[in-house]
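re: the backbone from monday

yeah here it is again, tokenized this time
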């Protein structure tokens, strides 16, 4: 959990609480409110121990997320004073010793209020893994970690940015710095934002920029630094703990994390699947290889439809809801009882060049070596007759502006970092949004040192998993001969795996076509089957009226015809369904006075 809302204008007591708990449809969090001459602020209870809001005579300090402190021990994460981490950050800042890109690692947002001067300082993390949003109009300034809460409190929920809605449907993100609300924007990543008593706007100052400066002579040198950083991150988190959890899969990222985790700890590994398929069997073999407890949780085939309202509200508009893989299971698996739950997110993006556009044949023939595409660009316009030309033209202009912004600091890899900085440009990030609000989630590959190292290596080192393999090799030793669910042996380099994977891939293709292997073999939802279900059609009917909010963007007004047209990909249809839900929710909010709606939330 843990989200904050700050308003320069004083708001009635209770209003901030009611809007923050509206993120949740159940299990409402405790919310703390603060009011003074400086304005009003509300923050929900932080699940990470030691990071509750702290107040003294002069300052209020709020931490969102669970950053790993690199300037001292982190024993308080397991047991300690509720505000120990928050106080440590505040005192280091007051002493003028804080170095944000070195002292705090991982996703975070910091808000410091000087009650005597009415000055506000808001700090975003290195990549905006936790995005922060702002509304500024005339003398009014509001900031929040949840865009929809800010939309309602700033009364912008009626002023929708239709271009951003289309952006989300087509790409699964909203191009930075825009949001789905016309007057709400995202704050800069890796920045300290200042609001003084005389300020008319937020004043940002970058503390780090991902300059394209290559600092390592060899790939082995870079890999060694990544290993040190990963091991330091895990050690700092787990010091003093006796039991931890992690998510396991049939892939290599979770195996590398398994190899990193201290063996003396009780380690419980979870996987969520529709059935015990190939992915599950590989995961169980990996769990056995590393001698960890293994638990598979079977979900319903319609799980990713069932969680649409709950997940959409949780992650916020402009973020794909389908990445909330742990929602509901966080309760049945008692994930909140663990002091730390580890994942393997962002290894693909930072260590394997996942955001580098590859030659087209790689998607169809994954056993071939990866070669960077010379023709593709993230700003190539999508030509679709579903949306009006002027909407698509404005969307392309925004994407080009973002690419130009990235190109000014990363000329050779702008197309890759287009999706990375800020990380809200990456459609996988909502997994972080959901998990951090449900349990104490830690992602080793998101450590600050990892980010900085990966920003300073050439793209050719990340292609074909070269950097990842150099980094992960010692951690994969225990599962050296265990196949990845896609047919590779992760311990070995691409030129060996090309032959191995070709054989396994060919067998899998033949087995699928001949019916030798039946059923869905992947880890996530089987959308081909979901979209053929009666329940999916019922969801379309249920949310169809949501098109009224953005009817001016479509060339076709009949929602059923849009879904049947075949002009949207599977993911675009899912994003459209989520958008219709959000639109319908906005319609209901607009039809009801805010005060009346708030009464229902308690």
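seq for it, each position gets an aa:
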């Amino acid at each position: 959990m843990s989200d904050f809302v700050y308003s320069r204008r004083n708001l009635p007591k209770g209003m901030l609480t009611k809007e923050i708990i509206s993120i949740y449809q159940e299990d409402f969090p405790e919310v703390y409110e603060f009011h003074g001459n400086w304005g009003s602020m509300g923050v929900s209870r932080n699940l990470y121990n030691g990071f509750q809001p702290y107040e003294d005579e002069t300052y209020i300090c709020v931490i969102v997320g669970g950053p790993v402190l690199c300037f001292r021990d982190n024993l308080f994460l397991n047991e300690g004073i509720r505000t120990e981490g928050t106080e440590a950050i505040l005192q280091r800042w007051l002493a003028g010793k804080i170095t944000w890109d070195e002292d705090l690692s991982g996703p975070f947002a910091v808000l410091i209020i000087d009650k005597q001067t009415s000055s506000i300082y808001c700090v975003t993390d290195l990549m905006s893994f936790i995005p922060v949003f702002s509304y500024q109009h005339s003398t009014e300034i509001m900031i929040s970690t949840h865009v929809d809460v800010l939309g309602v409190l700033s009364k912008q929920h009626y002023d929708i940015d239709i271009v951003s809605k289309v952006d989300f449907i087509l790409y699964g993100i909203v191009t930075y710095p825009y949001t789905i609300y016309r007057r709400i924007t995202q704050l800069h990543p890796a920045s300290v934002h200042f609001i003084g008593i005389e300020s008319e706007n937020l004043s940002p100052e970058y503390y780090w920029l991902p300059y394209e400066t290559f600092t390592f002579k060899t790939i082995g040198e870079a890999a060694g630094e990544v290993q040190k950083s990963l091991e330091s991150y895990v050690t700092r988190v787990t010091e003093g703990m006796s039991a931890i959890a992690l998510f396991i899969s049939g892939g290599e990222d979770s195996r590398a994390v398994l190899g990193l985790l201290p063996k003396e700890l009780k380690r419980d590994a979870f996987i969520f699947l529709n059935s015990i398929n190939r992915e599950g069997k590989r995961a169980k073999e990996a769990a056995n290889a590393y001698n960890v407890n293994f638990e598979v949780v079977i979900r319903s085939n319609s799980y990713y439809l069932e969680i649409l309202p709950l997940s959409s509200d949780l992650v916020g508009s402009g973020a794909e809801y389908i990445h909330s893989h742990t929602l509901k299971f966080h309760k049945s698996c008692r994930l909140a009882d663990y002091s730390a739950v580890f994942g393997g997110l962002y290894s693909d993006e930072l260590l394997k060049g996942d955001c580098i556009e590859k030659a087209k044949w790689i998607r169809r023939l994954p056993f071939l070596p990866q070669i960077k595409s010379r023709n593709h660009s993230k700003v190539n316009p999508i030509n679709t007759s579903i949306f009006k030309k002027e909407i698509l033209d404005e969307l392309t202009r925004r994407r080009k502006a973002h690419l130009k912004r990235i190109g000014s600091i990363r000329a050779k890899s702008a197309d890759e970092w287009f999706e990375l900085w800020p990380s809200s440009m990456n459609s996988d990030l909502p997994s972080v949004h959901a998990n951090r609000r449900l349990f104490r989630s830690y992602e080793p590959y998101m450590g600050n040192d990892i980010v900085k190292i990966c920003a300073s290596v050439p793209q050719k080192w990340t292609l074909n998993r070269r950097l990842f393999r150099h980094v992960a090799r010692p951690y994969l030793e225990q599962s050296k001969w265990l196949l990845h669910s896609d047919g590779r042996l992760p311990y070995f380099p691409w030129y060996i795996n090309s032959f191995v994977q070709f054989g396994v891939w060919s067998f899998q293709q033949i087995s699928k076509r001949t019916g030798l292997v039946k059923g869905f073999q992947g880890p996530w939802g089987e959308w081909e089957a979901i979209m053929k279900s009666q329940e999916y059609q019922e969801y379309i009917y249920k949310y169809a009226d949501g098109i009224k909010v953005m009817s001016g963007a479509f060339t076709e007004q009949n929602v059923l015809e849009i879904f049947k047209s075949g002009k949207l990909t599977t993911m675009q249809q899912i994003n459209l369904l989520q958008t219709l839900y959000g639109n319908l929710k906005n319609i209901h909010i607009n039809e009801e006075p805010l005060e009346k709606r708030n009464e229902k939330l308690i």
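The first helix runs from residue 15 to 21. Residues 593-602 have pLDDT under 50 and may be disordered.
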